[in-house]
Amino acid sequence: AFGGAAADVDAVAAAHGDDVGAWVRAQQALPATSVRAYYRRRANARPLSKLYVPAAVTSPCDVNSRWHNYVFQSTDEGEQLAVSNGAGGRTELRIDGALRAELTAFDGVALGTHTICNVLEGVGRQVRLLPAAAAASGTTCAAGAGRVNVPNPALDFGASPRARLPANTLQTPAVADIVVQPHTNAAGTGAVFVTARNVPCPASVTEDANGNSFMRYDGKYYRHDRRLKFVTNTLTEPSLIGAASDAQCPLAAPNYQNRAQCVLRAACSNAASFDDAPVLLDDDTIRGWYTDAAARRFVYVMNGLKLGALAEYSPCVSGRSRWKRVFGTACSPTTGIDATTLATVRAALAAAKAADTNPHMVDVTLSGAQCDETDAALLGATVRDTDNDCFTHVHADELSVRDATRWVNEHPGGAQRIRKWGEMGSINLVYASSHSAARWEDNKSKLPAIGRYGDEVSFNALRTELQTIALAVRVGALRSAPTDGVQACGSRNEVANEPLLGEQYASFHDPDDVSGTAIQDSMDWLHRARETFRYVIDNVHLTAPDELRQRTAWTLANWLVISTNDLSGFTTRPEAFLTFHDIFVRHAFGNYIDILRDISYHPLMGYYLTYRGSRSYAEAGSFADENYAREIMQLFSVGLVKLNDDGTPIIDPSTGEAEATYDNDDIVDFARAWTGFDVQRQRTNLHDQPRTGALTEPAGHPPARRPLPPLAARRSGPTPPRGGRAVSGTLPKRARALHGRLRRCSPAARPAPQAPVR
């Protein structure tokens, strides 16, 4: 069984007592947790294929770009490593001819050429090498003597590597220039994210021919870890790319699910061009994102965030603390702070203030030296710096500007709790006094940071959904105005990936990686890549707050089934399976006819029950596939026999047998209704290979593959088999024709094949 722990059960009992109905209603009111969206946010894949890249790729200047300070990564497997004596007595490592590192020592590895057999990512984890001499004697990466296992070394180049690296492939930001966050959700250590740039990245920064780009930061070297940038393409936000984005527009084909919400997206045309420009995060900019009707975003300044436990939030704890400026008579310095600690903080505030032009706050980084982290008086204290300017210690995210648009839809208390601030004309989101500090830490990733209130940021550094045409015009980033646009249609739950969540799930986009080995080795945690869609569903079931919906969806998914036994070739296409499961999540408390419609249009059902590609007699010269026509009645709806209200079979008095709900004639008629369904064209922004089209989209329905209307069918086609009935649309055999548009004939009185039905 899956579900909450004992503490969760106790919490439900405390909230609802014995009122089961109250719990059910509370569960039904929660937003649906999409398994597809859950997967896409955590599938932060590398571009493994040189033949097919389904999305834009991160650059060394991107915010939220990923870096690591170990030498070898999994994509090096199979490449040639050249080990030689380098400058300054160091050992030089080159992979595929490109300089990768200059180490003080590379113990256990002889000079010469080696094949990189296997890599576990992370400083100190195992790397297996096959020396050329061992390979010449018959040893392979899989077996034989002479293979060498070494720890994955930390990346190093010594003091002055610029002359030996290709031009502009090394950036050296100061500690205050960027914000670096360690990646902790991975088996190995050494990966970090650049989550903010306080100083713009130099425009000259680039990569070498092999995609290498390096950074020296705070005494360590890092290599840029190129990742795919999937964008938001939901029903309500189709092709949500920024004006200056390098992403391709993921234009889903119009269908019955998205057609009503397709928009004309100027950013998807080639008519507009843009330059970079500074963007001041002031009231006008923040409010402008809300008032822009073409791309409304709920962007707010965070206010009232709580400081938590002293051990985690003390300014003395190594890391960044935030201090809000206090002006005039409002300054009332806190007493009782340890004198040494107070002197350290005052000096640090003065130094930070000199380098920080923000008018509202300064950020201070203390090492812990001469600063007592157990001094409770310092938590939330008001202090004058050595210049007598006044500051109050606040939460490290206080006054941060964040995009709360996603949180509008996911807030457990309902969208209005977040929407109301924008609707009132405010730019501030006031954190509820009843919420704990932990609640903010648990959910802040759903409100991505843009910068600090009062900061100046780069237009190109903004998240793509914030790079609006209106903002580009206002800040002077619009080089040439758009003259046209492209119709952009979205897809349910096709959200952007979130780099800081890491590469938790496999993205099978490499057409050469049929087995999934390369993507499996690349993931942050090793697991069977072909089981990805099962792992995602299990994790959502175990962690999602809408537990009742997920249980109901699980029940429906075990009734209206598709099977990997018959779809084994599709197990490397998890996003398709997850969109199928989302049908049950979405309609768990809805209408059964909506479930039948969505599963019938889903390509995987078309493959599983073989009606994908079924064509009319007029086009194919053969009769339509009858499999789904039979199964939708037998297994998914009316069943084999008619039932009384108490569930017992209705008996035909003339035969003494249970009365059938349908006969073979109905199957033949329904088979004609299930013709014309086929997979939509392949497109970008999907975690999929360019093979058989977009399995995440409702099936296309080309008119040429559909049966002709009854009169035309009688005039141009043969007599339908076994019963000879011409049926329009999806009308069952016993449906009543309206207004004389269709009249049935009995088989005995059936006209000649060329005669029209009257």
Largest sheet: 6 strands, mixed
Provide the residue-averaged pLDDT.
86
Number of helices: 21
Overall shape: globular
Percent of residues in helices: 10-25%
Strand content: 15-25%
- Largest beta sheet: what is the strand line-up? 9-12-13-2-11-10
Uncertain regions spanning at least 5 consecutive residues: 711-758
Which radius of gyration do the C-alpha atoms yield?
Answer: 31 Å
Distance between the termini: 59 Å
Q: Write down how many β-strands occur, each being a DSSP E stretch of 2 or more residues.
A: 28
Category from helices, strands and their pairing: alpha+beta
Task: Put the structure in a nutshell.
24% of the residues lie in helices and 16% in strands. The protein is α+β, with helices and mostly antiparallel strands and 758 residues long.
Description of the molecule:
By secondary structure, this protein is an alpha+beta fold. It contains 21 helices and 28 strands. It has a 6-stranded mixed sheet, with no helix packed on it. β10 and β11 form a beta hairpin. α3 (35-42) packs across α13 (532-543), α14 packs across α15 and α19 (627-634) packs across α20 (664-673).
Salient structural properties:
758 residues, alpha+beta, 6-stranded antiparallel beta sheet, 21 helices, 24% helix, 16% strand, globular, disordered C terminus
